Amino acid sequence: KAPAKSTAKKSSAVNKVPEIECTSKQMQQAIVDRLHKGLGTDAEKANNKAWWNATCHAVNEVVFDKLTQTQQNHSGQDTRSVNYLSLEFLMGRLLSNNLHNLQLFKVTEEALKALGKDLYEICDEEPDMALGNGGLGRLAACFIDSLATLGYPAIGYGIHYEHGLFAQSFQDGRQIERPDTWREYGNPWEICRPESIQHVPLYGYVETVFDEDGGSHKVWHAGQKLKGVPWDVPIVGYGAKTVNILRLWESRADEAFDWDVFNAGGYVDAQAEKSKAETVSKVLYPNDETPEGKELRLVQQYFFCACSVKDILRRFKRHNTDWTKLSDKVAIQLNDTHPTIAIPELMRILVDEERLDWDFAWSICQKVFAYTNHTLLPEALEKWSVALFEKVLPRHLEIIYEINRQFMEVVEAKWPGDDSKKAKLSIIEEGDDRKVCMANLCVVTAYKVNGVAAVHSELVKTDLFPEYHELFPTKLVNVTNGVTPRRWLKACNPKLAALYDDEVGADWVVNLDKLRGVLPKAKDVALQKRFMDIKKDNKIELAKIIKDLTGVEVSADAIFDIQIKRLHEYKRQQLNMMHILALYKRLLDNPDYDMVPRVFIFGAKAAPGYHMAKQIIYALNKIADKVNNDERVKGKLKVVFLPNYRVSLAEKLFPAADISEQISTAGLEASGTGNMKFAINGALTVGTMDGANIEMAEEIGAEHMFIFGLSVAEVKELKQQGYNPFDYYYNNPELKSVLDWLDTDYFTPGHPGALSDIKRSLLEGGDEYLCLADYASYSEAHLKIDAMYRDQAVWAEKAILNSGAMGKFNSDRSIEDYASTIWNLTKHPIS
Ligand code: KOT
């Protein structure tokens, strides 16, 4: 029998969240049953992977039940829903989170213990679902957790990549990429839905068909067709009142089509065509903030948008025939510009297939789509060559031309005769290689455009889209990012979570503002001791992992100073590196140099084609080799670069951090979300006034953080004046000696110059990200860290003040902001 009957209790401790009744005995029975009946093994023979599998399947019995109830409830009431379109969902592992959200974690822990198994070890068996690159994909994962927790009808749409983000290892300090194989042995969380397959046309040509009434319409004759197979991953909200779905599309060859067109080619050619079709969802592009203009990437984008839009319309048509109702029932949120092609796809369906009048179809589109911008980096703005577009999506290009033609009339009306305005705002960039600007298409169409932190949203208005802002003064808005406290505190830091249960009550997990309850007690010695003991325990755990992964021994008495995020020059891992070299130099110059022992910990993947990012990884690994094996530093300095940084490793790092490095050049990190996860877990931030750091400082008090460096305005001013990194190089002897060190073979014996290109990019290269300009201030901030850590009472107080003030940065708050200001969405939790 299934482990649980989902009976709601009359009252419950947590925000009236009903608990699912399930005893340890029932759970044991369910797991053992799955071992026997599902996997054909038994408790004696089963390895930990089999135990994990069996536990997941036991949990699914509850999840699927709740899923059906939610779907029936939403469909029965024909609710308005949000459709979150994202090329990336960086989910990580699901077992621990699902158990917490079902409130079955403790009971499962007991059940497995009785069976001689440790739940934490079982959870560690799960491969990460790494269907994303970094912040943007992880944000999507936090958002669907919050949507379900809050009881909003929502679907996440994405791609069912066979290979997620590459696995990283190091060979002689250099990054090696290997394919990720998360689905090699199946995935217990997903359900294939062949009944909801979609067909996707590609290539071919467009015919104008003249109608009897004198009008005409367009018919797209595709040159190829793909089949989209949906895989649904249930998304369990906290308290399990709502289980939404994440629907991921897998591409296959469309047999029906192949037989017609490739008949003469015979069996072997048909098989080759089949493999080609399957490459579409094979692999996630590993570039963060640098779009790749490859045909396969455009096909991926269109494939998943076409499947998703058709699926959305299929659900709409189940209850509706009146197209004016579409915008009442459907909001489509575009996670950056990657799903922009959904806009002309909806136009195509409405105009060509449903035969709606253009203006009517356009008015619908303008009420359905909203767009989130996640970056100001100019190189990250997606532009597709018109020639490629014409080849892959000929009809969509025509539609985009028509949208643009009409929009240019609007621009002409606003700024008569101003061709420079037209050139700037046009969706089509003119030139030798004409381009389709996806962000422009988004802003022209969407009814709301949002940035992801206050400062970023202001810069979207003033620097990125000033003319659009003038034209559409209410369109551009802010929704500050947040992270789910279920994964990023309750599940990853059980000891701190238990402390908060005791201090402020267990419902902080659905109301993170409750953590403020600890602020008045920040000086309380007993609380400080408990807080710091937990931090120490977490550091000891991490020290074991570090030893396991790198062989390096670190002491949990040292300051754990952590920078984990994608490797990108604007995030300035190289600035951190320069400061580490300075400390190393100080220790070599003066063996008695007085510093609190420090462990610098890095985790970062570099895009495989990003040379400088890979060089920085190489440099850090080489520096780590030297420093960690140099007796002269007397254990005061260690550097570790953990391989294969990913969500499940992050869950071990945030709880163990003393210092959180958030050191991007001001104006370039749209928000950051790691900054929030660190602070929630009691780390102090060394950071610039950038992205969400600014709002964190407002909540926490800047005096409780280590803020350094140029502000956004100062960065602009310095760049305007003409920034010269050599000014800083010649005026700061320590900085100069650190950079000169990179030209020697000290860190790369026998290979002088192996690290010189980092120095070159910081000097002759112009230091685009102002590392030298911010160096002195950064170095000073680290002296303050060192001084403060010596007084553990002050440190504990600050850590509590940071963690307790993080209520705002909860993704439930972000989702409530989206729901009220953008989506106009109502909650429909199952009762
Ligand atoms: C943009 C274009 C292509 C690929 C990735 C991106 C991208 C990623 N843009 N922004 N991000 C990060 O998104 C996070 C969530 O909003 C932000 O916190 C972070 O600052 C962005 O860098």
From TrEMBL:
Belongs to the glycogen phosphorylase family. It catalyses: [(1->4)-alpha-D-glucosyl](n) + phosphate = [(1->4)-alpha-D-glucosyl](n-1) + alpha-D-glucose 1-phosphate. The keyword Ribosomal protein does not apply. Residues 4-15 have a biased composition (Low complexity). PANTHER family: GLYCOGEN PHOSPHORYLASE (PTHR11468), MALTODEXTRIN PHOSPHORYLASE (PTHR11468:SF25). Allosteric enzyme that catalyzes the rate-limiting step in glycogen catabolism, the phosphorolytic cleavage of glycogen to produce glucose-1-phosphate, and plays a central role in maintaining cellular and organismal glucose homeostasis. Coiled coil: none annotated. Keywords: Carbohydrate metabolism, Glycosyltransferase, Pyridoxal phosphate, Transferase. NCBIfam families: P_ylase. Its cofactor is pyridoxal 5'-phosphate. This is Alpha-1,4 glucan phosphorylase. Its EC number is 2.4.1.1. It holds the Pfam family Phosphorylase. Signal peptide: none annotated. It is an enzyme of class 2 (transferase). Gene3D superfamilies: Glycogen Phosphorylase B.
